[in-house]
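Hi R.,

As promised, here are both runs. First protein below:
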Amino acid sequence: MDREDMPRVGVDTFDDLERIKADFTRQMLAVFEQKLAASGLGTEEEAIKAHLMVWRDKTFEIAKPNLRVNGINYEDHTLEADETEPFDEALDRQIWANHDEKLIWDKTIADSRRIKPVQIQKMMEDLLVRQRVEEEVEAGEEDEEMDESCGFR
């Protein structure tokens, strides 16, 4: 599977991404506080919290290649992209469906262009053979009529 074929996590805006990061941090710290209270390591709280923040930052840094913000890959995002209108997922799906349908029609047309001329050629050859046979039959009948009218038999 190609890297571009893998689906990405989509968020509408960078504000949404920051909100997700803040919620993640809040939940992470809540779990940390619970574990800290249960373990009794209160003296090392700040060092552990600093390590958790570094881990959180690395986690979100690793996630960036798997993100799409407003329909644009995170790493391709520019300041001009911030000014574009929101990405329309339904429209994107419709565009890809139309693209797939176009490919199907292109293949059908290509197949027809390859097959139909051969079929037409065979049909024309058959028609010419039938016409020749019909002309020979008619010529034979005319000869017989002519022979009968002249008295030859």
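And here is the second one, sequence first, then its structure tokens:
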Amino acid sequence: MQTTTAERPISDVVREMSAAHAAARVRSGAPWAKLDAMALRAQYAAGQYERTGANLNSVADREAKARIRKTIEDTTAEFIRWRDMPQERMAREVAVINARPVSPAPVQTPELQASALLDEFSQRGIRLDVGSKNRISVRPAHLLTDHDKARLTTLRELVAAAWLDRNQVWICE
């Protein structure tokens, strides 16, 4: 007979990560920018964890939650590594980090652009409705700029898919 062990709640994992981040950041000479960026990415992942479907029978949902949990746990391990690192080694690693050229911001995938557009519209009080064949209705229309219309037209199918996913809509055609 198989036995299962209960996972720690994600809130406990995030709390542990935050404590490790604070302890690593306090150290003299710690690379704050790197640590803070890692913390922000992990906190965003934790937010995605809560938005991921809760269907335990869905392999995709279980895999997504496992990936997110691993990201947060890996980030916690990195914070603990920086917290416990000897000062001489920290100085060498910080020198290597500072010597690296700054890479340009990663290019957002169209899916992320569509999701960001939905978030932006929501913050601005713009509501969307998706009809058949991914037709999108926007209310109130007077809040849309020409730039918004161009982005919405370009990303129409992805925005519609993201909207349907966020609102848990299933359409039978």
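A quick note on the second one: Helices lie at 10-26, 32-51, 59-84, 87-99, 110-123, 146-154, 156-166. Let me know what you think.

Best,
J.
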